[in-house]
Amino acid sequence: MDNNAGENFDVVIVGSGAGGMLAAIRAHDAGLRAVVVEKSDRYGGTSAVSGGAIWIPNNRSLQGRDSPSMAMEYLKACTENAVPEAKLRYYVDMAPQLVDYLSALGIKYYVHPELTYPDYYPKHPGALPGGRTMFVAPLEDGHVLGEEFYRLRESYPEFKLMNRISLDLEEGSALLYRKPGWLGVLGRAMLRYWGDIGCRRRTRRDRRLTIGNALIGGLRKAMLERGIPLLLNTCMKELVVTDGRVTGVVVLREGRRQTLSAHKGVILASGGFEQSTELRERHLGHQSSGEWSATPRDNNVGDGLRAAQAIGADTAFLDQAWWAPTIRMPSQQAPNTNRHMALFFERGLPHSLCVNRNGVRFTNETCSYHQFGQAMLRDQALTGANSPCWFVFDGEFRRKYPLGGLLPGSVAPDATLPPDWFDNFLYRADSLHQLAGKIGVPTDALADTVAKFNRCSEAGVDKDFGRGDDFYSRYFGDPSHGPSRTLGSLAKGPYYAVRLDLGDLGTKGGPKTDESARVLTVGGAPIPGLYAIGNVAGSVMGGSYPGAGATLGSSMTFAMAAVNSLLTQQDQADERFEERITAP
What we know:
alpha+beta
């Protein structure tokens, strides 16, 4: 193909995460010719390395425990009037249809009767202790993807057993807390993986796909069945505008500049800008760094944001991110490299606490990871002694619990760890006094903080921050520990600390959109032919994070909204129109 040659499509989708792939499938099922372009050499984006869960308001699977009014009440409280009610209403009304559509594609989501993530703001009206999060069922044989199996972005090591064996969230929970039957879970997983002789001869990758890989694998399977092209190593450079309407994209494809025409429209699904130092400093300030992000390196640098702004798009929530504290952990697979890993639940386990660089606690450690990041920002503004802060724990925590990619000491004793990890990633000392000196916090302050925390732990009540007082705080604790699931004294040496940086799971600001995912100008008018979904767009969640799976749930819901709107704008006269947009 010549450098300037192009291809013609009805809709071009930029980005191969869950939202982008679902938009392409939905468009194809409505009779449109769609293509997905992906700048990386692997597809799936951040969605592929996520937990794969979706947060579904007005959730029909909760058997009457949720309703449109409850979901709206909760979302309005979370977003604090920063998001138009029409946009929230669309999410509430459309999200259940997303679950139906995924099911029709063969991607099954379910509410687990026991493993139910609570909503993240337990004190807000409409919050559910059981939560609105749904889990994706595994794709048992990823080899149905053919060679595309090897182009799927692989799950992170911490989501696997021995960095090989894929686990779903239920299996991971059973092994983490050693629930009844956990040895059976372990044995079946080992037998299934090592018994797959044919696969082991070819690759170490598990043919069974779970969590984010299960979702992306299922969507890729649906694309293959429909013959929807996916162009890897294809970076969008700019949007094509003809007579005031977006009619295509200019891409750099394997080093060649090409134009892809989009007769109906372009859907941006290219992720946020968390990997761009320039955009982070401009919009987020200097309070965090792209290297602390838990998202794949170098991918999300704001391509969609820049392209939309270049043609007059307004923006929203550029100062916001899906915050999560991260730890810098050296890789044992790739020498001389580190990766920042999010701490989702470890902060709620007994025998641990978090302190700022003054050696004092600053928040309820068991709050959601997003709220913890916001607490780091507030404390930094107040004291100047946060970001980074420190996660401190004792020998009992180290023996019993994992920490990011670090297995419990009962499985991986200190003697088995690389020597260079100590006093680099994992700080260890025989006393709190020595530990304080190693991590640079005031000795007396840390000792006083731990002593006060230990008294609270013995009483089972955190008088300072209410750790363990609500259903969310208790959920991620240890159910076998008493009198509190989350409070446990730091009394057994050696003592440990790891540095917590203000990381993220992506930014949540971008082009401002309406309830149909149409990109809006500064004057509030839709830009004809341009849509934005997922982290590239200003979030429907505003500055909040209502529950686990809110990123994927909203991205795919508004992928459906974008295609429905695109059809509405372009195909009013088509006799099959109503059938197209109402089919599950």
